[in-house]
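Need residues for this backbone.
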């Protein structure tokens, strides 16, 4: 706002000087008048161009360069404040069935090699299947029980391996290597056999790392700025030992550094578990969403260059890796936030990876016309009571389904709703309020026009509009040059929310990443 005011004043001064010069020459020849008029027009054009350029790059810094202990302030972004924030209380819910879903793990062949059959009894940590291209990478049962279904989808691809959980849980006993003396290969072999390797995601492409891969660096974000996101300070309470052990394990897997992105917004201090973590480098991030996205943090610490690979993990995945050594078992326990305005009782439920959504939400939904989302409302996946929680999600969001038609859209007086442009009157009357939302997009897909909206909400030195059009054109070289390898769907989710053209930007990006992966 301050920059805009200064630029407006500069525009007025420029116009005033030019106008004064013209008036001062009013007694002169007509040629002089024309010349000064041209000067005035030129000054106005230059000022306008300067305003556009400064608006585009205001607050942006060169990618990378953040040092251990430093703070990065992000100017671009937007916070969507919604009703239904999860209360820091325990919700009594228990899942009866759990599933491991191969399609969630990107890069895995659609028909992995099964190691169990329907009717088999398994313990938590027992292998269910492995990748055909990497038999040493095991995908394991999150709970003990009976395998009651192996569901298939199109072209016989396996979509779910469903387990009916035992009342009394049993775990496969593990013998971890000595962390201080084992080789990196021994450590990798143990993680692949235990099932923890599958929780690591490699960028670019968000895939499970191949056996033997060594990342340049490993990144972990310790806070989440997405709408209705869980408080990771609360999630990690009482798990400090396992979290630190997980960091120690990860430090042995890279020749670079393990980086923690800390919450520097000042709303609450980072948990002591994060702030006092040892053997890692820490950078604080201030700003609006997506400041908590690990992709944004990588970009400002040390961006991914062509040919490089980095790994990312969620906080609870680090705890699971640490528990392999502190508890000598695969502990797939998760604290999951139940959030959203259509959730009767918000809070946190103790469960395990792959829990049945219906079991966790039964009796806790207000209406009938609702949408259940595994994850946050921007980048989560639509699911239902028969679905299962993704291993990479620690949030279930329930909001009203927006399948009604609104005549005249934003032109008609209506209730206040989230908007980047602050178009609606209610946003001007009560800024900063929390909103009730539904899934209505308030418009259909339309021409892909240049608006500059994406740059205002994406705090990264990329040109998203040009990138998306390069993807649609299938221009591989242009895509790589415009920074596609640094991005994942969650990084552009806010761009999709702000998009006037109603484009499915996350799907476009995923299509582009798949094209890139085929070429590499």
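Answer:
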């Amino acid at each position: 706002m301050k920059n805009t005011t200064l630029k407006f004043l500069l525009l007025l001064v420029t116009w005033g000087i030019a106008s004064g010069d013209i008036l001062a020459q009013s007694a002169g020849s007509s040629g002089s008048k024309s010349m000064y008029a041209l000067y005035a027009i030129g000054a106005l054009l230059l000022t306008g161009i300067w305003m556009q350029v400064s608006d585009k790059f205001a607050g942006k810094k060169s990618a990378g360069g953040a040092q251990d202990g430093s703070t990065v302030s992000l100017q671009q972004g937007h916070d969507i404040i919604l009703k239904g924030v999860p209360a820091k209380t325990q919700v009594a819910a228990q899942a009866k069935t759990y599933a491991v879903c191969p399609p969630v793990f990107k890069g895995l062949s659609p028909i992995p090699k099964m190691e169990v059959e329907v009717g088999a009894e398994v313990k938590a940590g027992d292998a269910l299947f492995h990748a055909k291209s990497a038999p040493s990478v095991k995908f394991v049962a999150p709970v003990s029980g009976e395998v009651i279904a192996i569901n298939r989808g199109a072209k016989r691809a396996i979509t779910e391996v469903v387990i009916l959980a035992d009342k009394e849980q049993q775990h496969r006993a593990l013998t971890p290597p000595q962390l201080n003396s084992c080789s990196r290969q021994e450590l990798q072999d143990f993680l692949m056999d235990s099932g923890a390797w599958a929780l690591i995601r490699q960028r670019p492409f968000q895939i499970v790392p191949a056996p033997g891969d060594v990342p340049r660096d490993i990144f972990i974000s310790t806070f989440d700025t997405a709408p209705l996101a869980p408080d990771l300070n609360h999630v990690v309470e009482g798990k400090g030992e396992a979290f630190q052990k997980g960091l120690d394990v990860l430090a042995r897997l890279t020749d670079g550094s393990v980086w923690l992105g800390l919450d520097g917004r000042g709303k609450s201090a980072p948990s002591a578990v994060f702030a006092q973590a040892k053997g890692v480098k820490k950078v604080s991030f201030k700003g609006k969403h997506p400041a908590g996205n690990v992709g944004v943090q990588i970009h400002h610490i040390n961006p991914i260059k062509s040919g490089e690979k980095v790994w990312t993990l969620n906080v609870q995945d680090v705890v699971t890796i640490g528990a392999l050594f502190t508890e000598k078992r695969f502990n797939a326990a998760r604290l999951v936030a139940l959030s959203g305005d259509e959730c009767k009782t918000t809070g946190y439920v103790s469960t395990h990876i792959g829990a049945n959504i219906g079991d966790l939400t039964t009796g806790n939904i207000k209406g009938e016309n609702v949408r259940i989302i595994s994850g946050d409302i921007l980048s989560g996946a639509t699911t239902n009571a028969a679905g299962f929680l993704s291993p990479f999600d620690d949030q279930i969001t329930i909001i009203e389904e927006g399948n009604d038609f609104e005549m005249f859209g934003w032109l008609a007086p209506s209730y206040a709703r989230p908007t980047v442009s602050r178009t609606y009157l209610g946003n001007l009357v009560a800024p900063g309020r929390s909103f009730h939302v539904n899934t209505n997009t308030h418009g259909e897909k339309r021409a892909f026009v240049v608006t500059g909206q994406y740059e205002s909400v994406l705090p990264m030195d990329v040109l998203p509009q040009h990138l998306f059009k390069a993807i649609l054109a299938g221009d591989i070289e242009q895509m790589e040059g415009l920074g596609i390898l640094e991005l994942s769907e969650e990084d552009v989710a806010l761009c999709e929310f702000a998009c006037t053209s109603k484009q499915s930007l996350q799907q476009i990006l995923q299509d582009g990443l798949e094209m890139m992966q085929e070429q590499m």
